[in-house]
Amino acid sequence: MAQSAPLWLYAIVRKMYVKVLVTPGAKKETVEKLSDTSFEIAVREPAERNLANRRVVSIIAGQFKVVPGKVRIINGHRSGSKMLSVEI
């Protein structure tokens, strides 16, 4: 009988940390890539009811070609300077 890989092997997740400077309520939405892990983003959504944060997560997910569920804000929920984790 062939042995299968251990379960812990499937649980290994690669994470990347991304720093983002956000300007909510901008007239025009822009994304500026400062480095591989640093972005400056202006979003049209206001900084109310988590609208700007959701848009930032969606933009970063698009940049790294992952679903938005793989991107989480880990620091700076109420700040313009945010740290996000992206599961790759």
Q: Give the mean pLDDT.
A: 90
Counting structural domains, the number is: 1
Instruction: Classify the helix fraction into a percent range.
Output: 10-25%
> What would the CATH topology be?
Conserved Hypothetical Protein Mth637, Chain: A
User: How large is the radius of gyration?
Assistant: 16 Å
Q: Helix and strand string, N-terminal first?
A: HEEEHEE
- How much β-strand is present in the residues? 35-45%
Q: How many beta strands in the DSSP annotation?
A: 5
CATH class: Alpha Beta
Instruction: Quote the distance from N terminus to C terminus.
Output: 33 Å
Q: Order of strands across the biggest sheet?
A: 2-3-1-5-4
Structure characterization notes:
The protein has helices spanning 7-10, 51-64; strands at residues 15-23, 30-35, 38-42, 71-75, 81-87. With 88 residues, it is α+β, with helices and mostly antiparallel strands. The protein has a five-stranded mixed sheet, with helices on one face. The N and C termini lie far apart (33 Å).
Features:
5 strands; alpha+beta; Conserved Hypothetical Protein Mth637, Chain: A; elongated; 2 helices; 88 residues; five-stranded mixed sheet
In short:
This protein has 88 residues and is of the alpha+beta class. It is built from two helices and five strands, in the order αβββαββ.
What's the arrangement of secondary structure elements?
Blueprint: H1 7-10, E1 15-23, E2 30-35, E3 38-42, H2 51-64, E4 71-75, E5 81-87
Parallel strand pairs: 1-3
Antiparallel strand pairs: 1-5, 2-3, 4-5
